[in-house]
Amino acid sequence: MPRFPSLAAALLVLCALVATACSTDLDDAAVRRGTPLRDGPLLSGSEAAALLLSGKDVLVIDAGPPNLFAERRVRGATHADYGTWLDRTERDPMDPDFVDAWRRDLASDGVTGAPGIIIYGRPGSYSAPATTWYGLQSVGVERVWVVSGGFEAIAEHLPEEWIERGPRESSSVGRPQPVDPGDRRRAIDPGDASDAGDLSVPGDSDGPDRVQAAPRADAFRPDHTAARCPLAMKRDVLAALTDGRTTIIDVRRPTEFAGTETRGNPRPGRIPGAIHLEHTQLVAEDGRFKPAEEIRRTLAELGVRPHDPLILYCQSGGRSAALALALTDSGFTAVRNYFGSFREWSADGACPVEVESVAAESVEAAPLGNHDLHTGPAGRQP
């Protein structure tokens, strides 16, 4: 008697092997094109390392504390100052100087026109790399990704020669040198589809030194309307209080949400009607973001669907940027971040504040947690 069940099982195994091989080929092709292996803004350490090792022209940004950057970093990485990026990203798109200010800042950092940007942070904090990502994408930079798990996640997949150690001799530590106008490295406008498929630069040498020079800064035109996750300003949050559609999510600690931790705010509490989801709930024990399916399930338990309009906030925009990063990668399509956050909201007496009924003596300023590792110039906290 023919053993059809066994034959069927064999065919199923064969189909699975073929599908795996095809998937691998597609992934390899994606890396060769200099594009991520999926549409979201998060890359695993192995994906980010593969993109670097493929020889594509990629700018690497280290968004960790300066002391850790001085100790070890991906070779050729530039350093992003957290406080500086918080201030930049809070800018109002309606400000007449918005475009020119962004062009000046991005040019000084050497990130404009970059065909691909990889950002990584350090253990204990997603606020800094997420803020840098949010700022770049908020002005229309398209090919910018954050490494889930940070420096350690990418370093374990890179050869030793790709890891740079010790302070740099240059006085401009972590900042690319200006590029000569005659430099043969071409700048790629993220909005130019004709350049989107080829990130290689003919004539460049192979190896880790490829990522050290910055592309020319004259190719990119900041455009807030091209943002995948637009900024939310105070006026947008006020409108959301009564629009009947937008869900406001407070990503701070429970004590901040309840109003028992002041963080120096003149009026502790929360934005009325906000639901609570601390951003650390989406991070696994190994420091990487949880799988997209688990993140969607967590939001569903709060009554939030992937296409619902969302506004996120924290104290100064950093922690909510981390949640925006995770939600965007998990397929949420209408996410906005209020970078003024509760620091701005609490200071404006015209903005309503909701607070739980607590004894006055219980209201105190709690110590900073691990997710607040580094601050802005004036001690500004995320």
Structure description:
By secondary structure, the chain is α/β, with parallel strands linked by helices. The chain is built from 12 helices and 12 strands. Strands 1-6-5-2-4 form a 5-stranded parallel sheet. Strands 8-12-11-9-10 form a 5-stranded parallel sheet. A two-stranded antiparallel sheet has the order 3-7. The chain is globular. It starts with a helix and ends in a 35-residue tail after the last helix.
Residue share in helices? 25-40%
In whole angstroms, the N-to-C terminal distance is 71 Å
Query: Main β-sheet, in a few words?
Result: 5 strands, parallel
- What is the H-and-E element order? HEHEHEEHHEHEHEEHEHEHEHEH
Give the count of helical stretches. Answer: 12
Q: Please indicate the percent range of residues in DSSP E strands (runs of 2 or more).
A: 5-15%
Strand order of the largest sheet: 1-6-5-2-4
**Overall geometry:** globular
Beta strands, count: 12
What is the mean predicted local confidence, pLDDT?
76
Rg on CA atoms, Å: 22 Å
Secondary-structure-derived class: alpha/beta
Which regions are unreliable across 5 or more consecutive residues at pLDDT < 50? Answer: 1-5, 9-37, 171-218, 358-379
